[in-house]
Specification:
The complex is a heterodimer of chains A (233) and B (477).
Chain A (H helix, E strand, L loop, with lengths): L2 H13 L7 H13 L7 H4 L3 H14 L3 E5 L5 H11 L5 E4 L3 H4 L10 E4 L8 E5 L2 E3 L4 E5 L14 E7 L3 E2 L2 H11 L1 E2 L2 E2 L4 E5 L4 E2 L7 E2 L6 E7 L6
Parallel strand pairs in A: 1-14, 2-3, 2-4, 4-7, 5-8, 7-14
Antiparallel strand pairs in A: 5-6, 6-11, 9-10, 12-13
Chain B lengths: L7 H9 L2 H23 L4 H17 L1 H14 L3 E5 L2 H14 L4 E4 L3 H6 L1 H7 L3 E4 L2 H8 L16 H11 L12 H18 L2 E4 L3 E3 L4 E6 L3 H7 L3 E7 L3 E2 L2 H15 L7 E5 L13 E7 L22 H4 L2 H6 L10 H12 L1 H4 L11 H5 L6 H14 L5 H14 L2 H18 L5 E2 L6 H4 L4 E2 L6 H15 L1
Parallel strand pairs in B: 1-10, 2-3, 2-4, 4-7, 5-8, 7-10
Antiparallel strand pairs in B: 5-6, 6-9, 11-12
Helix pairs in contact in B: 3-12, 15-18
The chains are: A alpha/beta (233), B alpha/beta (477).
Chain lengths: 233, 477
C-alpha cells in the first residue's frame, strides 16, 4: 500500500508500544463509533420545557446580534420579510432557496417583493432559506446542504433571512445530530450531507484591534422569522 | 516556515521597544481574557466538561491508528480522499499536485496553522499558484509579508494605523483620498477586495479543528464566514489537518466545541461551525466537486506515549497565549516559529528540535496561568520543565549558565555550607548597600540589574535570624 500511510500507522503503534489493536479493543472502538454516546450536556436548555427552549433560543440569538420576528402561521412569512426589509431600508430583491417549505409560502401576495428561486449569486442582496433545526443552548441555527438548500445561499447575500418553525427548536447540538440521523437514515445507513452549517449570529471579525465588526465576509445581518406553530418539539 | 527561535532574546528585546506592538497588545487583556472569564462563569458545567474533553482526547490518542483508519474509510465512502503525509515537503507536494491537475491559478485559504507549519503559501507561489488568505487577520499579515503573531488572531500585534497604511499600499486601484480611520472602513474594504477572489478561486484550502471518525467529516470553526466561502465556491476543497485532530463521534466534537469558543474568544459558540463531509453529492445544488484531506504527521506520532503526549490534546484555542505575561509583553513573532506562547514553548521544540528552540521553554515565569485556563488541562509548565531538563542534559545552555548552576547545586546539596555562605553574602551586601538601600549594578549579575535595581539585604539571612530567634525563645523559658 501507500508507504507514507504505513509508516505513519507504524510510528503511531511503535509509540503506543503495541501492534494493531487487539480484536476486543477494536470492537470496543467500533461500538463507540456506532452508539453515539452522549457526554455531559449543560442543563441550561435541557431542563426547560419546549416553550422555554424557544424563548431561550430567541434570547441567545439576539445576544449575538441576530434579529427575530415571530409570526402566527407560515402564510404570514412573506409579509414579515417585506416588513423587515422596508424597516431597514434594504432592497426588496431576494433569492430564495429552492426549498418546498419556501415554495409553499404565498409570495405572490407580496408583489413588491421581487423573488427569484435558486442558487445565490454575488449580486443577490437578500437570501431567504429554510433550516433543518435550531439549538436553544446558544441560539444556533442548523442548516445542511442538499438539492433544496445550496450552501452559498447562507453566505453570499448581505442579508440572510431564515425561516424557522418553533417545533424545530431543540435543546442541544446532540439533539440536532439525532434529528439529522433520523431524517437521513435508510435501512440503517446514514447519509451525511456534504455540509452542515451551525450558524450563530451574523458574520463577524475582531481582527483589527479586537474591535468586533459585523459582516466580515458572510452576511452582515441575520434575521430569523419564527413561525410560532404552538407545538414545540 | 523557517524558524528564528534561536534569536528569541533579540526578538523579544525588539518587541519590548516597539510602541505599536505594546499599544496593540493591551487589547488582548480586555478582548480575550475578560470575555473568556465571563463565558466560563456563565456555564456551571465548565469543570465537568473539561474533564470529559480530556477523557475523549485520551481515548482518541490511545486508539489513534484505529480512529484514523475509520476516518479514512468514511471519507472514501463519501467520495473524498485522504493523503497521509509524513512531513511538510510531502504535504506541500500533495497540495501542489492537486492544484496542478485542476490547472489552478488561484487558491483561497481559510486560516490554517498547519498551512503555516508546512509553509504552503511559499510553495504554491514558487510554483505559479497564487494563494489568497481570506481571514481578515491572515490577509493583513499576508500583504505585510509577516508571519502570524497569534494562533487565532494573526494580526493582533498591529494597530489600525499600520493596517490602514498596508491597505493603501496594496489596494492601489482604490481612491487614495478614501477615509480609512476605523476598523469598520477597513473591514468593508477587505470584504470588497476579497469577494471577487472567492468567486474566482479554483481551489479552496481550509484547516480543521476536528476530524470525526464516525462520519469522515472535518470541522472548522470561524466567525467571518471566509472558511465557508473558501470551501463552497471552488472546484475542490483541500483540508490541511494534523493527525491528532481526530475525535470518535459528532457527540465528542460537540463536547469539545463547548469549550473551544469560550476559551478562545469568550463567545458561547462561534458564528460558524461547519461540518464538511466529502465532495458535493450528485443532487446537491452547489459545493466543491472534490474533497481532499491532507493528513500531516510531521513528528506528532513520535510524541505519543512519551512525556509530551499531553500536548497532542491541544485544540489551539490560544487561551494560554492570552493569559501569559511573557506572551502579552512580547507578542507572538518573538517566538520565531508558527506556535507562540506557552503551547508553542512546548510544541515548537517537539516539532523542530530543542537545539533550534531551546530559548522557548525558558521564556516562562512558571506562573501557571496557562495550565489553569487550558480547557484540555495540558500541564504546560511541567512540560516546559521537561524541556529545560533535556536541554541541560545535552549541555545546550551557555557555559557560564551551566557553571553557575553547577556552583549553586554544589551548595544546595550542602545545607550548612549554603546557610553560611548566604549569611556571609547577606552581611556583605547589607553593609555595602546600607547608604542607598539598593544596588544599581552588581558583579556577575549585570543581566539582572540592567533593567532593575537589586534591593540591599537587611544584613542577615532568614535562616540565621530564625536560628537566633529560636535560641532566644529557648533561653527565655
Amino acid at each position: 500500500m501507500n508507504p507514507s500511510r504505513d509508516q505513519i500507522l507504524n510510528s503511531i503503534r511503535r509509540s503506543l508500544k503495541r501492534g494493531a489493536l487487539a480484536p476486543e479493543a477494536a470492537a470496543a472502538c467500533e461500538t463507540r463509533l456506532a452508539t453515539h454516546r452522549r457526554n455531559l450536556i449543560p442543563a441550561r436548555a435541557q431542563t426547560l420545557p419546549p416553550r422555554g427552549q424557544v424563548e431561550l433560543f430567541i434570547k441567545m440569538a439576539e445576544t449575538v446580534n441576530a434579529t427575530v420576528a415571530r409570526v402566527k402561521q407560515a402564510a404570514d412569512v412573506p409579509a414579515a420579510i417585506a416588513d423587515y426589509l422596508s424597516r431597514l431600508n434594504l432592497p426588496s430583491r431576494l433569492v430564495r432557496a429552492p426549498d418546498p417549505v419556501l415554495d409553499a409560502l404565498p409570495w405572490s401576495e407580496w408583489p413588491l417583493l421581487e423573488t427569484r428561486r435558486g442558487v445565490a449569486e454575488d449580486s443577490d442582496p437578500v437570501g431567504v432559506t429554510a433550516c433543518f433545526a435550531a439549538v436553544a443552548e446558544t441560539g444556533t441555527l442548523m442548516l445542511h446542504s442538499g438539492a433544496a438548500s445550496p450552501t452559498r445561499n447562507n453566505f453570499l447575500p448581505d442579508t440572510h433571512v431564515v425561516v424557522l418553525r418553533a417545533s424545530q427548536v431543540a435543546a442541544a447540538y446532540e439533539d440536532g445530530w439525532d434529528k439529522l440521523r433520523a431524517a437521513r437514515s435508510r435501512d440503517g445507513n446514514f447519509a451525511m450531507p456534504r455540509t452542515v452549517n451551525f450558524i450563530t449570529g451574523p458574520s463577524r471579525t475582531a481582527d483589527i484591534e479586537q474591535k468586533i465588526e459585523l459582516g466580515a465576509h458572510g452576511p452582515r445581518r441575520l434575521h430569523i422569522v419564527l413561525i410560532d406553530d404552538g407545538e414545540a418539539a | 516556515m523557517k524558524a528564528t527561535s534561536r534569536a528569541f532574546k533579540a526578538n523579544a528585546r525588539h518587541a519590548l521597544g516597539d510602541p505599536n506592538l505594546q499599544r496593540a497588545m493591551i487589547n488582548l487583556r480586555t478582548g480575550f481574557a475578560e470575555r473568556r472569564a465571563h463565558a466560563v462563569a456563565r456555564l456551571p458545567e465548565w469543570e465537568a466538561l473539561r474533564e470529559q474533553a480530556v477523557a475523549i482526547k485520551k481515548d482518541a490518542l490511545a486508539h489513534l491508528d484505529f480512529y484514523l483508519e475509520a476516518f479514512e474509510q468514511k471519507v472514501i465512502a463519501n467520495g473524498g480522499q485522504v493523503h497521509w503525509c509524513r512531513d511538510a515537503a510531502e504535504a506541500n507536494e500533495t497540495v501542489l499536485a492537486i492544484c496542478r491537475r485542476l490547472d489552478a491559478k488561484t487558491v483561497t485559504k481559510g486560516k490554517t496553522m498547519i498551512g503555516e507549519e508546512i509553509g504552503i503559501n511559499d510553495h504554491l507561489a514558487a510554483n505559479g499558484v497564487t494563494p489568497v488568505e481570506t481571514d481578515l487577520g491572515e490577509y493583513i499579515i499576508q500583504i505585510r509579508h509577516e508571519p502570524p503573531s497569534h494562533i487565532i488572531a494573526p494580526a493582533v500585534h498591529l494597530v489600525k494605523e499600520q493596517i490602514a497604511q498596508s491597505f493603501r499600499e496594496t489596494h492601489r486601484d482604490l481612491d487614495p483620498a478614501r477615509p480609512l480611520q476605523d476598523s469598520r472602513q477597513m473591514c468593508d474594504e477587505a470584504r470588497a477586495v476579497l469577494r471577487p477572489r472567492f468567486l474566482a478561486a479554483d481551489v479552496g484550502i481550509t484547516g480543521a479543528n476536528f476530524l470525526v471518525a464516525e462520519t469522515g467529516s472535518s470541522i472548522i470553526v470561524t466567525n467571518e464566514g471566509n472558511g465557508d466561502l473558501t470551501q463552497t465556491l471552488p472546484k475542490a476543497h483541500i483540508v490541511l489537518a494534523s493527525l491528532e485532530k481526530v475525535v470518535p463521534t459528532l457527540e465528542d466534537a460537540a463536547t469539545i466545541l463547548r469549550l473551544l469558543a469560550r476559551s478562545a474568544t469568550g463567545q458561547e459558540f462561534s458564528a460558524y461551525t461547519t461540518v464538511s463531509t466529502g465532495p458535493r453529492r450528485r443532487d446537491d445544488a452547489d459545493g466543491p466537486g472534490e474533497y481532499h484531506v491532507v493528513l500531516l504527521d510531521n513528528g506528532r506520532s513520535a510524541l505519543l506515549g512519551g512525556e509530551f503526549e499531553d500536548m497532542l490534546r491541544c485544540i489551539r484555542c490560544a487561551a494560554c497565549l492570552n493569559h501569559c505575561p511573557v506572551y502579552r509583553a512580547i507578542g507572538g513573532q518573538s517566538y520565531g516559529w508558527v506556535y507562540p506562547g506557552p503551547m508553542g514553548s512546548v510544541l515548537t521544540p517537539s516539532l523542530i528540535g530543542i537545539e533550534a528552540a531551546g530559548n522557548l521553554p525558558n521564556a516562562s515565569t512558571f506562573c501557571g496561568q496557562c495550565e489553569s485556563v487550558c480547557p484540555m488541562k495540558i500541564p504546560l509548565p511541567k512540560m516546559m520543565r521537561h524541556w529545560r531538563e533535556r536541554e541541560f542534559q545535552r549541555h545546550l545552555p551557555p557555559a557560564a549558565y551551566q557553571l553557575g548552576l553547577a556552583a549553586w547545586a554544589f551548595f544546595a546539596r550542602r545545607p550548612a555550607l549554603y546557610r553560611l555562605a548566604a549569611d556571609i553574602g547577606a552581611r556583605i551586601l547589607g553593609y555595602a548597600g546600607r547608604a542607598r538601600g539598593r544596588f544599581r549594578a552588581l558583579p556577575f549579575a549585570a543581566g539582572w540589574t540592567r533593567t532593575r535595581d537589586m534591593p540591599a539585604p537587611e544584613g542577615r539571612s532568614f535562616m540565621s535570624l530564625w536560628a537566633a530567634r529560636q535560641s532566644a525563645k529557648r533561653s527565655a523559658k
